[in-house]
Amino acid sequence: MPYCWKCGSEYQEGSNFCQSCGYNLGAASDAHQHTDSSVSKMERWTGEYAYDKSGLFKSLLSQISGASRNTVAFSADLVFDGNRLSGTMKEVNTFLTVYGEDSPRYLISNISGYIDGNEIIFDKNYDGGGGYGHTVRYKGKFDADVENIFGAWVYHGEKGNFKMSRISKVLPTSLI
Fold first, then answer.
1. Model confidence at 82, in pLDDT bands (50, 70, 90)?
2. Is 60 exposed, middle or buried (0-12, 13-18, 19+ CB in 10 A)?
3. In terms of pLDDT, which residue wins out, 18 or 79?
4. What's the N-to-C CA distance of the chain in angstroms?
5. What distance in Å separates the CA atoms of residue 55 and residue 76, rounded to the nearest whole number?
6. Which residue ranges make up each domain of the chain?
7. Is the pLDDT higher at 146 or at 4?
8. Which residues share a beta bridge with 76?
9. Residue 102: band (very low, low, confident or very high) from pLDDT cuts 50, 70, 90
10. What 3-state class would DSSP assign to 174?
């Protein structure tokens, strides 16, 4: 079944509009439409995200923990399957000083999104560890020359920026 290049949802072949987001599928070029493929590739990435300096969330966190969180480092295993993106992200739990040593040292999240040319949009869904189960939206640009992604994230009006770099190409998922 093909996937909508805008939201990543499956749609009925021959449909004119995506049932999930309403996108006009007739406007999508063949390059944006994904058909099932037995080979997808997984890559390892590393990066960091930062809180916007003017955000209420950042100032509240600084008051509670007594320390400012300028950047948070993460690693990600991303699976590229046509125009679909999925994977996992692991980051240091910077809230340990707030919630104590009973909290997990690392937070894990699942990645789900899509790619359109050099634009990448994905949701990072925390898996519930440490009481974190929220979703953060990321939107970025892929720079093929230096193999990195940079952009911004948003969560309930709070925002910041992120950057990540590819550190290795891993086996096709059909071989794993």
1. confident
2. exposed
3. 79
4. 23
5. 25
6. 1-36, 39-175
7. 146
8. 45, 89
9. low
10. helix
- And the tokens for 80? 């590229």
Type of residue found at 1: M
Are 88 and 76 spatial neighbours (Cβ–Cβ below 8 Å)? yes
- Answer yes or no: CATH 2.130.10.120 is held by domain 39-175: no
Residue 38: per-residue pLDDT: 47
pLDDT of residue 130: 77
Averaged over 39-61, what is the pLDDT?
A: 76
SS3 per residue for 53-114: CCCHHHHHHHHHHCCCCCEEEEEEEEEEECCEEEEEEEEECCCHHHHCCCCCCEEEEEEEEE
Paired tokens of 127: 């898996």
What DSSP line would sit under 104-166, residue for residue? -SEEEEEEEEEEETTEEEEEEEE-SGGG---EEEEEEEEETTTTEEEEEEEETTEEEEEEEEE
| Distance from C-alpha of 106 to C-alpha of 115, rounded to nearest angstrom | 27
Q: How far apart are CA 121 and CA 137, in angstroms?
A: 7
Look at residue 7 and tell me whether its pLDDT is greater than 60. no
For 25, which DSSP code? G
